Amino acid sequence: GQKTCLHLHGVFPYIYVPYDGCGQQLERHLRQLAFSIDRALNVALGNPSSSIQHVFKVSLVSGTPFYGYHEKEQQFMKIYLYNPLMVKRVCELLQGGAIMNKSYQPHEAHLPYLLQLFIDYNLYGMNLINLASIKFRKARRKDLKKKKKKYIYIYIAPYTQVGRNPGLQSIWEDEKQRRREKNESSQIEPPESQVIDRGFMQATDSEKVFKKRLKEILKQNDFSV
């Protein structure tokens, strides 16, 4: 097929930090956080008088914290940045207490920008991507004069829907079809190691200690055991 250079707009790198509902108005607090990040980052980059904006926006979302066990969802501030290269520096400032004189624990800051994009839209390499709306760019004259390879340049406008690919479901369907073609059952069953009866296994001393400690922690937090 025709080779394509796809320019995807409106997809920003982001991180999460916990929101503790510090008593201020929500919108005001989110604006203050964005302003504080911009100011601290400009100072860290050696331009304290700069007015460059690094934060695209900050929004309030809900989710289950990655660290530790949590029974209910909690609120987080989702910080969108313009430049993926600034994510690490912003995390250092958040953890160091340079933002609003408070230390924040960033979440999902370890994910590279492209991997974050692939995860959010369920994309994976060497596969198709479904797009709701596209725009084509005409080839420039200097590209034609230099006889560059012919690519179709496609632009995706901001906030255009990127279709989610079937992901693992398509892999399972391919495996079922392969089995049908070989006149085998298309029903994928678990391996014998998961269904075999292994009988009674004697608990080790360390297992008994950890079970006892777990029950104590559950009782302290009013969980039934």
TrEMBL record:
Residues 175-184 have a biased composition (Basic and acidic residues). SUPFAM superfamilies: Ribonuclease H-like. Pfam families: POL3_N. InterPro entries: DPOD/Z_N, PolZ_Rev3, RNaseH-like_sf. Residues 175-197 are annotated as: Disordered. One of its GO terms (molecular function) is DNA-directed DNA polymerase activity. It catalyses: DNA(n) + a 2'-deoxyribonucleoside 5'-triphosphate = DNA(n+1) + diphosphate. One of its GO terms (cellular component) is zeta DNA polymerase complex. One of its GO terms (biological process) is error-prone translesion synthesis. Residues 10-88 form the DNA polymerase delta/zeta catalytic subunit N-terminal domain. PANTHER family: DNA POLYMERASE ZETA CATALYTIC SUBUNIT. This is DNA polymerase delta/zeta catalytic subunit N-terminal domain-containing protein.
